[in-house]
Design goal:
It is globular, with a radius of gyration of 20 Å. It has 4 helices and 7 strands. The longest helix has 25 residues. The chain starts with 25 loop residues before the first helix and ends with a helix. With 192 residues, the chain is of the alpha+beta class. Strand 6 and strand 7 form a beta hairpin. The strands form 2 sheets. The protein has a 5-stranded antiparallel β-sheet. Strands 4-5 form a two-stranded antiparallel ribbon. It binds ligand K1U and zinc ion (ZN).
Length: 192
Amino acid sequence: MALLPILTAPDPRLKKKSKPIETVDAEIVRLMDDMLETMYAAPGIGLAAPQVGVLKRVIVLDIEREDVKTGPLFMANPEIIEASDEDVTYEEGCLSVPEHYSDVARPAHVRVRYLDREGKAQELACDGLLATCVQHEIDHLDGVLFIDHISSLKRNMILRKLLKARKDAEREAEDDKPALPKSRAKAAAEAM
Ligand code: K1U
Ligand code: ZN
């Protein structure tokens, strides 16, 4: 298994619509396993393939808590086939929007149809955090982030901060590099 790099906003790949899976073959199983390992390492409770730069309709989740023991869930081509009229608001985070959180209202109960890790068609009734998380992950497959559900004022403020953090990190990495490659630096010193 392998840890995959997680893309952060604003990255154009996070805004694209992902393609359906034709069959859950060995390549998709490997992607699912790598995504689960990446999600646990982050740590997170869900991850969608576009977050690791793969525009395929695959998500993984594990919201295990003392009261919820679903274990890891692997879903290819997940679709919401029923949603409650009742909404619930949850403070959401996202591994692609690090260190920012916002309240988002979504249907409190949903029924999801998907292909599991063995390629078998399944349906699952989701409530509570699992319902919120599965909707958040399916949104990723359609190029939608939780910040698309909040005011444009707050969204743009978060995106500006993320862009600044990325530029600062790039500048720091650049400052840590030697000004000249070692061999040229040595040659320059010897020539003096
Ligand atoms: O999609 C993602 O980036 C994963 C995201 C899922 C999510 C969280 C909260 C509401 C909706 C969807 C995360 O996992 S953010 C990290 C997180 O919530 C968490 C991390 C460790 C322990 C418990 C929660
Ligand atoms: Zn997310």
